[in-house]
Design brief:
301 residues; alpha/beta; D-Maltodextrin-Binding Protein, domain 2; seven-stranded mixed sheet; 10 helices; 13 strands; elongated
Length: 301
């Protein structure tokens, strides 16, 4: 019988993450441990079992036959533990730490204003929110949910659509007074167009010409922005012209702080927003399901 002070499920989980990550250092990053701590834990596990699980003779991690058998049995044990916990918690209120990653405009203008309502409804959930327009790896960052704008590329993730918004080209009245108002898409070549400082799925701004044919205008400007909110603030300051989702700048348009441009040439394309996560159905933690349902109920784009 194992000593009561040995966390056998914890050992199995660390070993499984090492196998799945392919190295001690990669597993350590996912587990938020140091590589030396992971290595020592595996060494203690091997000593307790009296069997070598991992071959250290090569730079690439390789499992011994005993290690392969232990991994196969271990992941079944972890799955059974998860099922037991879900069954026990089925009637309980959602609880625990919820890690949410959101692109900056959504985080500032939608998530943060709604967060108090969510926490009031689910007081036993602790939300850890990170706002960034960088696309993260949910498994590596140990995030439960990521809110992303634009087309989705990762098929291994489950996605729940929260809405979509028509794109619009805007500028501040002060900028237009100083530089003039473009009347045709080609006029943008003489203007300062705000660009993102990271790779996008398009290289320019799409329009249609007077005959309805698609036209792509290259982005021409002297500044790049880290995220959509920075681009909005740049436009508000009069630094240049921006192209953003309508929901993001609707209050500015209504207040006259920004002016829509080239609407006769707007192709009407829309930017979708999704909540992406790992797992579905009965395998989805109650805290994650509660958050997704709350977003679907409250978010308007």
């Amino acid at each position: 019988m194992a000593r009561p002070d040995i966390n056998r499920s914890g050992e199995i989980e660390v070993f499984a993450r090492v196998v799945e990550a392919g190295s001690f250092s990669a597993a350590a990053r996912r587990l938020r441990m140091t590589p030396s701590a992971v290595s020592k834990l595996i060494a203690r596990l091997e000593m307790r079992l009296g069997a070598r699980l991992v071959s250290r003779s090569t730079r690439k991690l390789q499992l011994t036959p005993e290690g392969t058998a232990f991994y196969d049995n271990g992941i079944r044990i972890l799955a059974d533990l998860d099922a037991a916990e879900r069954e026990a918690a089925a009637g309980a209120a959602p609880r625990g730490r919820l890690r949410v990653n959101a692109y900056v405009p959504f985080g500032q203008h939608r998530l943060m204003p709604l967060l108090p309502r969510f926490l009031e409804r689910y007081p036993e959930i602790f939300v850890e929110a990170v706002l960034t327009d960088s696309v993260i790896d949910l498994m590596e960052e140990r995030a439960d949910v990521a809110i992303r704008a634009g087309p989705l590329r990762e098929s291994r993730l489950v996605a729940r659509k929260l809405g979509q918004s028509r794109m619009v080209v805007v500028a501040a009245p002060a900028y237009l007074d100083a530089r003039g108002t473009p009347s045709m898409p080609g006029d943008l070549a003489r203007h300062n167009m705000a660009a993102f400082g990271f790779a996008r799925y398009v290289d320019g701004w799409p329009f249609i010409d007077v005959g309805g044919a698609p036209v792509m205008v290259p982005i021409n400007g002297n500044a790049t922005m880290s995220d959509g909110e920075a681009m909005r603030l740049s436009a508000l300051s009069g630094a240049g012209i921006a192209r953003l989702a309508r929901w993001h700048v609707e209050p500015d348009i209504a207040a006259g702080r920004l002016v829509p441009l080239l609407e006769d040439f707007n192709p009407g394309d829309e930017e979708p927003t999704h909540a992406v996560y790992v797992g579905q159905g009965k395998h989805l933690p109650a805290r994650v399901r509660a958050f997704l349902d709350f977003l679907a109920e409250t978010v308007r784009l």
